[in-house]
């Protein structure tokens, strides 16, 4: 999962992205792939820590939220980088941020370390919302 996402992101960092005016504090394009790989590995480890706890009640609900999180996570980047639609990417990212919060809450209740492993991803996605909003503002279509 992490490697597939990271390699897909590498393809998406195109001339289009590099040609846009960047908001302040935008990372170099070369940083996106390794950061994405690390964060998605951490998401996988967090889910594994929850999954190994067993009982289906709270564990099942938390992992379902994690699955929805992955779906929205997989959607925003192709919308932004593939369709070149920052506005629609932001529309996908708003529910994604909510799912991140819900998933972290569910994970922490089951396995504290799993919730802690998700915090860097939550921070990065808040940063990504800032960046995409900045790209949208600075590069009108």
Second rung of CATH, namely the architecture: Up-down Bundle
Number of domains: 1
CATH fold node name? Ferritin
Sheet-strand content, in percent, reads under 5%
Low-confidence stretches: none
Q: Largest sheet, if any?
A: none
Shape: elongated
Percent of residues in helices? over 70%
Mean pLDDT: 90
Question: At the fourth CATH level, what is the homologous superfamily?
Answer: TspO/MBR protein
Number of strands: 0
Radius of gyration: 16 Å
N-to-C series of helices and strands: HHHHHH
Q: How many individual helices? A: 6
Structural class: mainly alpha
CATH class: Mainly Alpha
- Euclidean distance between termini CA atoms: 32 Å
Give a description of the structure.
By secondary structure, this protein is mainly α. It has a single domain (2-138), classed as Ferritin (Up-down Bundle). Helix content is 84%, strand content 0%. The chain is built from six helices and no strands. The chain has helices spanning 2-12, 15-19, 29-51, 56-82, 86-110, 112-138. It starts with a helix and ends with a helix. The model has no long low-confidence stretch (mean pLDDT 90).
């Amino acid at each position: 999962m992490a490697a597939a996402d990271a390699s897909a992101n590498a393809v998406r960092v195109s001339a289009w992205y590099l040609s846009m005016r960047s908001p302040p504090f935008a990372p170099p394009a070369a940083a996106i792939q390794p950061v994405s790989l690390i964060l998605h590995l951490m998401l996988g480890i967090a889910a594994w820590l929850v999954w190994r706890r067993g009982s289906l009640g709270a564990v099942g609900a938390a992992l379902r939220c994690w699955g929805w999180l992955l779906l929205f996570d997989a959607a925003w980047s192709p919308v932004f980088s593939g369709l070149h639609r920052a506005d629609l990417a932001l529309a996908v990212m708003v529910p994604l941020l909510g799912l991140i919060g819900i998933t972290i809450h569910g994970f922490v209740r089951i396995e504290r370390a799993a919730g802690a492993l998700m915090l860097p991803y939550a921070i990065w996605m808040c940063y990504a919302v800032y960046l995409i909003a900045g790209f949208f503002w600075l590069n009108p279509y």
